[in-house]
Amino acid sequence: MLRTLKPSEIASYCDVHHRTVSRWIASGELKGHKLPGRGNYRVQVADFIEFLEKQGMPVPPSLSAHPRVLVVDDEAGIRSVIRRTLQRLELDVVEAAGGFEAGMLVLQQAPDLMTIDLAMPGFNGFDVIRVIRQQPEFNDIRLLVISGLPEPELEKAVELGANDYLMKPFDADVLLAKVQKMLNLRAFVR
Questions:
Q1: What is the pLDDT of residues 119-162, one digit of tens each?
Q2: What letter would DSSP give residue 59?
Q3: Which of 175, 173, 130, 143 lies closest to 70, judged by CA?
Q4: What is the distance between the alpha carbons of residues 190 and 179, in angstroms, rounded to a whole number?
Q5: Are strands 113-116 and 164-167 parallel, antiparallel or unpaired?
Q6: Which terminus in the chain has less CB density within 10 A, N or C?
Q7: Which helix (H) or strand (E) covers residue 143, if one does?
Q8: Which residue positions does 4-aspartylphosphate occur at (predicted)?
Q9: pTM, 2 dp
């Protein structure tokens, strides 16, 4: 997913006025582009990180160059196994112990991909998928269901908007292959 920032967001990171950011873009100091129509500027995250590094400014951790994955499962052991497996792909991994926590983290962390268990107490995985797919700003988030429910339930999750599924117990190499494909990553594993 190609993430972009508004001048106001960049201004907040740099503690400057948004017009200063627009001048940086207009002068070519910061690589950006104008949106068709109103002409508002947008800057790709990678270009902003490059700008910060050239200026000797710190790069906020929330703008990591690595894709971010949100692992949603009520079992700490399963979250840990998924996290350790995905870190072999040099992904930033954030964990949520349930659907409600996942909802908050989606807003804060802007993940590129989510792994979602379906059978969680309270706000379950089906609920998470419905909410994510009802919000246009989350359309680019890839959803991978990882669940021990029967295959018809996993297929129902895909009908609701999940991109793919994996049955528990899962093979780590199959998980890595699915995530690489979903995020268009090169085939690299540490």
A1: 999 999 999 999 999 998 888 899 999 999 999 999 999 999 99
A2: P
A3: 143
A4: 15
A5: unpaired
A6: C
A7: strand 142-147
A8: 117
A9: 0.68
